[in-house]
């Protein structure tokens, strides 16, 4: 329950002006690799918001907003939210 509340608070704290979310089914390990690849492509280290053995949520600051990536082991999902200022 606490992780769900933390997730909700984090999402509500993001700029809501131009927000776009996508969800993909994939293994937890593949999702973690997406986070690593995104860090490499953006040239920015991810900021950890939640990191457990079941879930990882990171934020990448960008020049015009941020990218939030959430990996869920139980759901086998990756959710990406792009927010623009």
Written account of the structure:
The termini are far apart. The protein has a five-stranded antiparallel beta sheet, with helices on both faces. It is built from two helices and five strands. A hairpin with a 4-residue loop joins strand 4 (65-72) and strand 5. It is globular. The protein has helices spanning 2-13, 28-42; strands at residues 18-25, 47-51, 55-62, 65-72, 77-84. The chain is an alpha+beta fold and 85 residues long. It has one domain: 2-Layer Sandwich (TATA-Binding Protein). 15% of the residues are buried.
Features:
single chain; alpha+beta; 5-stranded antiparallel sheet; TATA-Binding Protein; 44% strand; 85 residues
CATH superfamily assignment? TATA-Binding Protein
Radius of gyration of CA atoms, rounded to a whole number: 12 Å
The count of helical stretches stands at 2
Could you name the CATH topology?
TATA-Binding Protein
Low-confidence stretches: none
Overall spatial form: globular
Estimate the strand proportion: 35-45%
Order of helices and strands: HEHEEEE
Physical arrangement of strands within the biggest beta sheet: 1-5-4-3-2
Name given to the CATH architecture: 2-Layer Sandwich
């Amino acid at each position: 329950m606490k992780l769900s509340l933390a997730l909700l608070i984090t999402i509500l704290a993001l700029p809501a002006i131009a927000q776009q979310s996508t969800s993909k089914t994939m293994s937890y390990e593949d999702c973690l690799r997406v986070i690593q690849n995104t860090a490499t492509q953006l040239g920015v280290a991810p900021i950890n918001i939640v990191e457990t053995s079941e879930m990882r949520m990171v934020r990448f600051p960008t020049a015009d907003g941020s990218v939030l990536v959430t990996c869920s082991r139980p759901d086998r999902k990756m959710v990406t939210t792009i927010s623009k200022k």
